[in-house]
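Cross-check.
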Amino acid sequence: MKLRIHTQLPQSTIAAYIHFLTFTVGLTIFGCLFFILPHQQISVFEKRKLCSFPRFTSQSLFKGSYTDSLDIYVADNFPFRDQLVAVSFGIKNHRGIQSDQVAFYTNTVDDQIPPSLDTASMKTDSTLAPADTAEQNDIHQSNGLLIYKGMAIQMFGGNRPIARQYANAVNKFYEKYKGQAKVYVAVTPTHGEFCLPDDYKKYYVSERKNIDSLYSYLLPEVHKVDIYSQLQKHKDEYIFFNTDHHWTGLGAYYAYSAFCTEAGLTPLRLDQMEKKVIPNFLGSLYWLTRDPKLKDHIDSVIYYKSPAVTTAHAGKSLEKMSKANVYVEFAKGVNSYGVFLGSDYPVMKVETDVKNGRKAVVIKNSYGNPFSTYLVSNFEEVFIVDYRYYNSSLKKLITDNGITDIIFITPTFSANTKWHVSRVASIL
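Predicted model, tokenized:
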């Protein structure tokens, strides 16, 4: 008589085999897709440049930086990354108690230079460079970000000692060039100063008071441009984006009008320029938060083209430039704000058909891009310097080109941030 022994695996063991096979098959498929699918250079969802494949050197291998770079490269380029990141943000946005009108975030956007940006390889033709990466380090002037009725409002924290350092840097600059050129300071308030609800003002430092304080530290001979009053007159108009930390072309126009008043110039009227619209713009503050309330209040980038005839060149320095455009009209999507100048070039030179003997240099960050486009109507030449990237001699630029007007333009956030002030001081 033969005994037959029937063995049956426990259910827990079968489940373990299924989990193992599922994990192995999934890992194999994703591994194959990693090599088969094309890799993106830019994440549209995160609005940043993705890591490229690292260059191998024996030194980087022994230091460990090569393998670290490989890890970052894989993390930035795994299949369906944007879709998975979008799902992650969707889950976060639906946790807890939701409000139809208000949401608060502790992070914010700053125009600080991306540490990964290689200015040596920056394009200087008419194409759009990748959008700036938003840095979150050492932003002492911010108290967070409020979403209110579909508007993203950065909560200004202010930092009077740093604002005073900004004023002192400009004063030193004036002392160096007095008698050669007039110096103008144009500090602009942001969205929150005009749109913040009363319940949240206790978390907010008055930008008006901060600007007044900064201006009080400037020498009497330095021209203070009163942008605040102009924007306050038009606060109910579309002067700031709902979803982006910049101002609109209209907001920048009112700042240009304020500058012309201070500089003894006649501003071009809006009806003297060609109005154009780029629809469907979701800006930096949407991509930072992915808040669905912002997506319901999508922006348009409206710009006004000056009738002045211009020829523009841009690059790392005046010696290394190629053809550029004052308006890059094919800009669209997340890069729509790039219609103003096309990119944050270290330096741009614009020659115009205006003949009045005046030549300007604008020292700015990206907030100054739309403002600069209006100046071509009032100056023979406009030099546009981005202090975050410019490493050449500003003294040589001013002296060799017979500059008559030097314009510092910045939002309050930048004028109250140590990194920005140190960059302004360093190029002076």
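The CA atoms of residues 275 and 304 lie 5 Å apart. The chain has two domains: 35-94, 119-427. Passed to J.P. for a second look.
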